[in-house]
Amino acid sequence: MRAKPPIIALREAALSIGDKTLFNEANISISDGDRICLVGRNGSGKSTLLKVLAGEREIDSGQRFVQPGSKIGYLPQDPVIPKDVSVRNYIGAELEKYELNADYEYQVENMLVTLGLDGAQSIETLSGGENRRLAIARALISAPDILLLDEPTNHLDLPTIEWFENELSRYRGGLLLISHDRAFLRRLTNKTYWIDRTVVRRNSAGFAEFSSWSEKVMQDEETEFRLLNKKIAEETKWLREGLTARRKRNMGRVRNLQELNKKKIDRLRRQGNVEFTLKEAERSGELVLEAKNIFKTYLGDDGDDKIIVRDFSTRIKRQDRIGLIGKNGVGKTSLLRMLIGEDKPDAGKVKIGISVTSVYYDQKRESLDLNASLWSTLCPEGGDTIDVGGRKRHVVSYLRDFLFEEKQAISPVKTLSGGERNRLLLARLFSKEHNLVVLDEPTNDLDVETLELLEEVLSDYKGTIILVSHDRDFLDRVATSTIVLEGNGRVEEYPGGYSTYLQQSGVKKASTGQLLNVNKKKPIVRRKNNGAEKLTYKDQRELDALPNLISDLLAEELEIQGQLNDPDFYRADPKQFNLLSNELMKIKEKIQKSEERWIDLEEQREVLEINSSLEEN
Description:
There is one protein chain. The protein is globular. It has 18 helices and 20 strands. The longest helix has 43 residues. Helix 2 runs parallel beside helix 4 and helix 7 packs antiparallel against helix 8. Strand 15 and strand 16 form a beta hairpin. About 5% of the residues have low confidence.
């Protein structure tokens, strides 16, 4: 099959900002039907490269090609949106730019309805989520030949993300997108560009293959590095022996050795990995917090009281990992603040457990002083050291763990990008003592590698975690239960992460032109129960015993995992290490099967009770 001609392309493109090279000799092409993800570390130049493709920024050298007459839809990470214009006119201006006046009003109105926007509303009154939906509407309205999307899911709730996924899966033009949402990338992409240390690498597979591909690239480099070291050793030996034997330098081989050493130095300048160390305080009691029949309202724009939560109760125990989800504006942050005692319910009670010490990673990142330096942000009382995990660390060394350069230590926070500010907040958060971590949208602006490392740290954390997130992968990998704000005060709690919640609640994904409603409950299927009104004695006994069994298995899993985490264990007794590793896998399987059985029995019990009630009525 002949390759399709590119609609937009870069040839041998290079760009530097100051003394930092972002990319060099970059070759990128986007054709009709391409579905490409652009990945790389925060600060590697992804957004800048997208601006170059969109024609928003010039390159230092190389060529940019755009097929004449092509329409390019571009969604920047932080679009500059005028404040003195209505929503309808702002979206319609994109059609006017391409002189697409046929069905003008219909197209705009259809987009407004689809994305739940009020066309007459002034843009300056929109929330963050509404602003994002507005920018998406403007990017999509002209049916562009190429879509360039930079973090399109930021500030979107899960229903809107899933609707947007469906829209893009039907899109037939060329697509290149940057996103930290791995589920979004896996579903939509079939090619990958990776900015890695100024080199733009290409892989003819989507994001689902990125991990294995990037690992192979690194392994190949390691092999090359070992061969380089061997060559250096051979050349050094020859020089030493040759100089002794003949007292004569072979300057060609000397220059060769110098060149090899230069390559080694360049190789050792590889970007580092973010290193997280959680500084846990004194262990909390078994009960971390308890909410009993809490009720909360707020005054809406129309002057009426809106219910956030009605008669909700929960108990959060030590080492629980709780995810909070729901549509934008439904009250997730308000419920979070009530649970941790920063706000009070109108009715009901929230009880904080013994010795609970919390740290809060807020959604708007308002806790950063933009005029303060990175150094003073981490050392507000002065000095140059931080106590992290029981050991003293110099502030510059600690900042390096989070990929900051030494010269940035005295720079003001306002000079940092969104991703860098996130890393600084994480650095400060993890240097404090705590046994309860509260995270409000922690994944925004984090690159994939930092995100995966954060997941690992949270998985190993011995304290308790409460998090608000729209990142489905993150919820699945971290959360042990999910609290869902379903609207109109309805709040339900489900065991497991987001995928498990979907299975249990029966929520259906968004269909064309319609956003998913998270308050849809699974329809009750009336089963033939042959007169049974409740579970059999045997099933009821099994259901009663399963919570304790799962709890015991989780404790056993935690104990074995703690032993395996000891770096000296494998060196001391590799046989026992392997035995415990196999035992851990068996326990994980038992936990999964027990949880599945527990869910199945609970559903059977619920259906039997409902059917019995229906027959009585």
